[in-house]
Amino acid sequence: KLLHRTTRTVKVTADGAVYYERVVRLLADVDDAETSLSTAAAAPRGHLRVDVPSPLARLILIPALPAFHAQYPDIQLDLGVSDRTVDLIGDNVDCVIRGGELSDQSLVARRIGNLEFITVASTDYLARKGTPQHPLELEEKHTSLLYFSPQSGRHYPLEFRKGAESIDINGPYQMSVNEANAYVTAALHGMGVAQITSFQAQKHLKAGTLVQLLPDWTQPLLPVYVVYPPNRHLSAKVRAFVDWTAELFQRDPHL
What is the pTM of this model? Predict the structure, then answer.
């Protein structure tokens, strides 16, 4: 039974909702197959559901999307923006942009770039606390601003590398954040020493609201992938978005 009917209302049953979701996916797959095997492959079309981390969406992807739509006017883009990892199959997402090494080997992934991190603090924070000259000072005289995983709740340390020397700082901290834009905002308001991507930092460094710290110490690069389910590999619209995104990342000097 797919529907509950009364004289006044019609409501979908639990089985009906599951049936609907399955049929929507099947129809999308049929549309992708027809598009890929027809002359329309040269002009991809249809709905495309993409999920992107919030800072990449705000600073990199969305500003460039007018060029994407000029090139592919028949693709309707549904853009999910979040730091949380989505379930591509369960949420019926065509592809995602993800940072970090991938744990799900069942997905298809294309590496499109790396994210570089730098250590920063606000001018207000440095006026109050002073400027650290070594990472270990962060454990003794300073406050760290940490990021924690939206999925696991795990706190990520501030990482410092110089030659063979490796130091991870886990605090002390007064605040941790699980969303990248909020993390930068907290750093701007003097909540502690933070590590943010260079593309997020550029505007604030030029404005003088953030200052780079400990430039002789580097942080590990974070690989960036476009990821999609194996059954999407023939989709012309997914292939168009993946190729366009890879080219966009290659052009950006801060990625």
Answer: 0.77
